[in-house]
Amino acid sequence: MTVINPQTNIRSAGKKSVVSGSEHIISLRQRLFYYFIRVPVSLFFMIFYRSRFFGCNNMPSQGGLIVAANHQSYYDPVLIAAGLRRRLNFLAKKQLFKFKPLAWLIDFLDAIPLDIDGIGYEGIKISIRRLRNGEAILIFPEGARTWDGEIDEFKKGSLSLAKQTNSAILPTAIDGCYQSWPRINKLPYLWGRIRVIYGKAITYDEFKNLSEEELRKLVHSKITELFQKIKFNT
User: Which domains does the chain have, with CATH numbers?
Assistant: First the structure.
């Protein structure tokens, strides 16, 4: 997982990628598979990590949405998706598509390919198209997994897509994944305590007049508040 490369011309990408009437089609098989694997995934985390989810109903039922979360481990994407009723779009490094068994899964989940140093031009076009089609995309504004379990500063440009596509933002915090699978470990510990909390969505009207920096600070404060809540009070 990563964030949008701030050096890329997002506005230009948006103009070239979205055409009148364009749609992103997800097959029935893909939809069924996505919701089917949520069951074993949820059971796995419940058994080994006593996972709990809070604020699941805060996710808007429709419209373009960016789920913005802190990033603690490789577990984060599947855990965040497990607590939401809507289908999430994931980002995956292009290098992962070279490993055929994993490539099949990533491709079947319709992941958005990204370059090692950022989403890149093609990834931005795909992301804009999907957001304007009313889909939801998971983004980690920190740009990388934490080294110490705490929330780092957000990268510049990490939330630009929200303003470009008039999409709402769902602040999300996760705690316990760092202890279960810290960045220095190649493999996770098969025990722990994990909590995920989804805050109230921030609508486009609430941040349309904010600068990108002000928006980053707003979302960072929301996620930090949620993080402290599940870290000490649940």
Answer: 27-83+128-233 (3.40.1130.10)
